[in-house]
Amino acid sequence: MERYVTADNQVTKYVHDDGSETAIKTTSSCANFYNTITDKIEPVMVDRNKFSVFISSSVGCPINCKFCYLTVKKFPYHKLTQEQIIKNVKDALTEEIKHKPELKEKFMKLSWMGMGDALLLEPLDIKRISKKIFSWAFKNNITTGVDGLDISTTLPKKPSDFAKQMKYLNDNLLYNYPLNPTIPYNRSKVRIFYSLHSISNRYKLIPTLNSNVLSDIEFMKLLKENFSYNLDILFHHMFLDGVNDTYEETESVINILNELVPYSELRILRYNKCENSPYKESTKFDELVKMFASRMNHVKYQISSGSEIKAACGMFLMKTIK
Ligand code: SF4
User: Fold this and answer.
1) What architecture is the 2-321 domain classified under in CATH?
2) pTM here?
3) Cα–Cα–Cα angle for 167, 168, 173, nearest 5°?
């Protein structure tokens, strides 16, 4: 297993012997404010006493999103067993705690945002793996409690038991661990992030799925309704130059989300161009953020931690090796 660390020491990436990656971030959470001097919506860091573990569900990824560095680099794909996925996270955390013993006093978030799409696994398996990792980390004093569990997905499948398994998982976290007191009281412990990026052109960015975005959004609505109580649904979005950054398309995304899922949050990601990628971030980024923020109730954009981070989907290429 190799260990890479960003210059600011806030992100560590472990490359396992099987080729998959686990990243651990101690960066603060991000909030936004309107800066009247720059006339821009800007991010500000908020320390919530937590760290995040980015778990890989496979080596490489068969979804082949065209903007993802795994696709650009033609990274080979193969499946991992549940045991391998769990072992990789345990190995990474066991090593990381030696370098950063202060993690023991922090709350842990598990983010299914590494290599692969979590929903290529069965929801039952996502639940089992997540439970085992939290239980092991808590018993072994890796963490003081739970900050939550985030699942990012392009929605390659729409499993009928997704809501049920996520509800079990949410309750398991809620009733069995100390919870980070900084989590807003009405936020679900399990959150689902749908990789939106476009409504009219999403099939061009993720051609392997060729999905119907409106039917995906309907599924997310149903998922929330079947969860029994509040399930946070968030949409990941990036602005790519000349691809999805027209005012017309932005207007249409705002209208559709406001109409169908007005309670949801739009999470805008910065696009970190990697070598040979045909894409770059939109030059209209600030204007588009302002458009979203003025028309939607819940919008946030994130800071990428460390200039070495060069990838989408929670994966990081590092320059510094320690
Ligand atoms: S962005 Fe995520 S789902 Fe898409 S190819 Fe990369 S790892 Fe897979």
Assistant:
1) Alpha-Beta Barrel (3.20)
2) 0.91
3) 95
